[in-house]
Design goal:
The chain is α+β, with helices and mostly antiparallel strands. It has one domain: Sufe protein. Chain: A. The chain contains six helices and three strands. The chain has a three-stranded antiparallel β-sheet. It is globular and about 45 Å long. It starts with a helix and ends in a 12-residue tail after the last helix. The chain binds FE2/S2 (inorganic) cluster (FES).
């Protein structure tokens, strides 16, 4: 399996690993197939994501995609984070082997879950913004 240099680099030095105390939104998603779990913490001020951290028990591809995803949304408005797709994350990493593509879905879903949690804490129904969070577990492709 060939990984791009960017994937290897983010896997070796993942950005924004950890947790945020007093986070404004926390999202956790899991994958029933491989048992991988992803937890995402967001700090949000005035609609801007000022800090983001993640923790995962996922594979290398999950670590690399989460690292890149957090870099892409840090300092950005919530609206930008809502638009982030796993495809954009994979492109920013110069691609992923096809069988690992679905690992990148964990990051996207964890960000959405954390934003949904943020809206809920504000007393706002998250569905119009975040959409329906699918009950379907993301598939790892393994
Ligand atoms: Fe489960 Fe990649 S996230 S194998």
């Amino acid at each position: 399996m060939i990984y791009s240099e960017k994937v290897m680099e983010h896997f070796a030095n993942p950005r924004n690993v950890g947790e945020i105390e007093n986070a404004d939104g926390v999202g956790e998603v899991g994958n029933a197939k491989c048992g991988d779990i992803m937890k995402m913490y967001l700090k949000i001020d005035d609609g801007i994501i000022t800090d983001v951290k993640f923790k995962t028990f996922g594979c290398g591809a999950a670590v690399a995609t989460s690292s890149m995803a957090t870099e892409l949304i840090k300092g950005k408005p919530i609206e930008d984070a809502l638009k982030l797709t796993n495809k954009a994350v994979v492109e920013a990493l110069d691609g992923l082997p096809t069988v690992k593509l679905h690992c990148s879905v964990l990051a996207e879903q964890a960000i959405k879950a954390a934003l949904a949690d943020y809206y809920t804490r504000q007393g706002v129904d998250p569905e119009p913004y975040v959409g329906k969070l699918s009950d379907e577990e993301p598939s790892c492709g393994i």
